[in-house]
């Protein structure tokens, strides 16, 4: 069973990660945001590739689900923290972190 504190500890252990507010959530980013946590700390949204999202959701059907909108089709995935152990959460966060290390998006 993982908690928001576990997510924070794992995310901040990944090289280059910073934590900052993002609207009504807390965001973790390297070049781009790869995870957000709402104020209640019960879930998190992580950005995976669509292929990684499909695989992880099949592997952990009660713990992960695509965000139910266009963001979900882009790989954003809701994680129920209490449904995963710390090792599984670390693996998911590492996958999201790897995908976020590319160049930051340019703002117009």
UniProtKB/TrEMBL annotation:
Alphabetized, the UniProt keywords read: DNA-binding
Q: Which GO terms describe its molecular function?
A: DNA binding
Q: Which InterPro entries match?
A: YjbR-like_sf, YjbR/MT2646/Rv2570-like
| Presence of keyword DNA-binding | yes
Please give the superkingdom of this protein's source.
Bacteria
- This chain belongs to the protein called MmcQ/YjbR family DNA-binding protein
The keyword Membrane is assigned to this record: no
Cross-referenced Gene3D superfamilies, in alphabetical order?
A: 3.90.1150.30
């Amino acid at each position: 069973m993982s908690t928001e504190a576990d997510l924070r500890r794992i995310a901040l252990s990944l090289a280059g990660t910073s934590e900052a507010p993002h609207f009504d959530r807390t965001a973790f980013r390297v070049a781009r945001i790869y995870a957000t946590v709402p104020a209640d700390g019960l879930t998190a949204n992580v950005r995976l590739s669509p292929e990684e999202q499909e695989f992880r959701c099949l592997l952990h059907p009660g713990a992960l689900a695509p965000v139910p909108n266009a963001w979900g089709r882009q790989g954003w995935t809701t994680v129920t923290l209490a449904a995963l152990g710390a090792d599984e959460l670390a693996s998911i966060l590492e996958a999201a972190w790897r995908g976020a290390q590319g160049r930051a998006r340019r703002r117009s």
